[in-house]
Amino acid sequence: MAFNASVFLQENEESNSQRMEKKQLQNNLVASEDPLQNLCLASQEVLQKAQQSGRSRCLKCGGSRMFYCYTCYVPIENVPVEQIPLVKLPLKIDIIKHPNETDGKSTAVHAKLLAPEFVNIYTYPCIPEYEEKDHEVALIFPGPQSVSIKEISFHLQKRMKSKDRGPKDDPDIPSLKRKKTEEQEGCDLNESKCIGTTLKKIIFIDSTWNQTNKISTDERLQGLLQVELKTRKTCFWRHQKGKPDTFLSTIEAIYYFLVDYHTNILKEKYIGQYDNLLFFYSFMYRMIKNAKCSAVK
After folding, report:
1. pTM, 2 dp
2. What is the DSSP secondary-structure string of 236-267?
3. What is the mean pLDDT of each run of 10 residues along the chain (297 residues)?
C-alpha cells in the first residue's frame, strides 16, 4: 500500500487538535468544580490536623470553636498562630458588621485573622468618621452612583481638587457639571492613567444582602465614593437564594478588590500577593464541598 505522507500529517494534526480540545475541556471542568484551585497558599496542614482533632478551646474566651474564634479574632488552641500566614495589604480596611449578622457565619473575621495590622471590624451603629477624609476612602458597595476600580483615582483626585479650591458654597468654584475635558485635567479616565491615587482606606459592609440597606444608607457613609465589583462570581457555600452570583461574600469582595487594585491602580504584576486572604475560606470551601459529596453518595 502506498504511504501518503500528507494524509498522515493531516490526520495527526487533527488528532492533536482533538486531544488539546479535550484537555482544555477537562481543565475548564476542573476549574468550574474548584475555582480556588490555583491560589498560591501557605500550607494548610495545620487546618487539616485541626479538622481531624475536632473543635478546640479559644485561649481568650474559652469558647469551643473550629479553626479560630470568631468572637476574639484569634486562632484556637490546636491551631498555632505561627502557622497562620500574615498578609501585607496596600490599603487599610474597615469592615462595618451588621449587629444581626451571625458571627460564626461571617467571613469578615478571616481578613482580621490574616491581616490584623490592616483590618478593623466595627459593629453597626459604630462607624468611624470619614467626612474629612472622603478623598482617601472608598465604600465597596454596588449602587447607581458606583464606579469601577479603574475610575477610583480620577474620582478621588476630583474630590481632592475640590477641597483645595475651598468650601462647596464658594462662588468661585466651577460647577461639577463642567466639561469632561476640564474635569479630567491630567487624567485619562478610560485608560486609568491618573497620576497616583489618594486612596488609603476601603470600607466593606458585612451582612446579608437583605440587611445592607440600613448600613449603606447611613448618613456617615453618604457622600463616599462607591466602588462596585462587577466581573467576579461567588463560590460561597451560603450564597443567598434569589441573588445574582456577582454578590460576593465579604472575604471574596476584599480579595478580588485587592487583586484588581494591584493590577489596575498600582500597575504591578499580580503573583499571588493576597491569595492567603483565602487561606481559611478555600479550606472550608473544599471541606464543605467534600462533605456534601459524601452525603450524596
Report:
1. 0.79
2. -TTPPTTS-TT---HHHHHHHHHHHHHHHTS-
3. 55 60 45 75 97 95 96 96 97 96 92 98 96 94 93 92 63 40 45 64 92 92 93 71 74 96 96 98 90 67
pLDDT score of 88: 98
Give dist(CA 140, CA 147) in Å, integer. 10
Q: What is the dihedral of CA 171, 172, 178, 181, to 10 degrees?
A: -170
Long-range CB contacts for residues 255-264, cutoff 8 Å, separation at least 24: 256/229, 256/232, 257/140, 257/149, 257/202, 257/227, 257/229, 258/89, 258/90, 258/91, 260/149, 260/229, 261/90, 261/91, 261/149, 261/152, 262/90, 264/149, 264/150, 264/192
d(CA 17, CA 10): 11
Asked, as a colleague might, if the bond just before 125 is cis with ω within 30 of 0, I would say yes
Say which residues have a Cβ less than 8 Å from residue 211's Cβ, sequence separation at least 6: 98, 100, 101
Q: Which of 239-260 are b and which e, b meaning 16 or more Cβ less than 10 Å from the residue's Cβ?
A: eeeeeeeebbbbbbbbbbbbbb
Question: DSSP string covering 196-218, please?
Answer: -----EEEEEES-GGGHHHHHT-
Match 475541556 to its residue by C-alpha cell.
25
> What integer pLDDT is reported at residue 81 of this predicted model?
94
**Cβ distance 119 to 263 under 8 Å?**
no
